[in-house]
Amino acid sequence: MLRIMSRNPEEPVFNRIEEVRTAMGLSRQELANKVGVHYQTVGYLEREEYSPSLVLALRISKTLNQEVSEIFSLTPLKKGK
Questions:
Q1: Distance separating alpha carbons of residues 4 and 19, to the nearest angstrom
Q2: Residue 74: what pLDDT?
Q3: What is the share, in percent, of the chain residues with pLDDT greater than 70?
Q4: Which of 31, 52, 64, 81 is an S-S bond match for 57, by CB 3.0 to 4.6 Å?
Q5: Short-list 38, 20, 21, CA closest to 29
Q6: How far is Cα 78 from Cα 80, in angstroms, rounded to an integer?
Q7: Which residues pair with 73 in a beta bridge?
Q8: Per-residue confidence band for 1, with pLDDT thresholds at 50, 70 and 90
Q9: Which CA distances in Å does 77 have to 29, 48, 69?
Q10: Per-residue exposure over 38-75, b if at least 16 CB sit within 10 Å of its own CB, e if not
């Protein structure tokens, strides 16, 4: 029997992707194109329904010109930092 490993649901990753993205004037599609994912993935991330891989978190941070810790956290982030 094949077992699929899932993300740990007890430890969500909070983020400020939407806030930073919109401040930069980027659409979800534009950000997705720059980091190499489907635009729906950006939506899942922004709604905190999906936790990014480390590589994706680093790509997003670089594209948004922010430190990883300014965008992602294991504790809720204050919007409008």
A1: 33
A2: 93
A3: 84
A4: 52
A5: 38
A6: 6
A7: 14
A8: very low
A9: 24, 12, 10
A10: eeebbeebbeeebbbeeebbebbbebbebeeeebbeee
Give the DSSP H/E element, type plus range, for residue 73: strand 72-73
Tokens 């490993």 locate to: 5
Q: What number is the average pLDDT over the span 28-40?
A: 98
Instruction: Enter the tokens of residue 7.
Output: 């993300």
What structural domains and CATH numbers belong to the chain? 14-68 (1.10.260.40)
Structure tokens at 36: 């190499």
For residue range 46-72, what is the model confidence (pLDDT) as tens digits? 999 999 999 999 999 999 999 999 999
Integer Cα distance of 12 and 1 in angstroms: 28
What is the pLDDT at residue 78?
A: 79
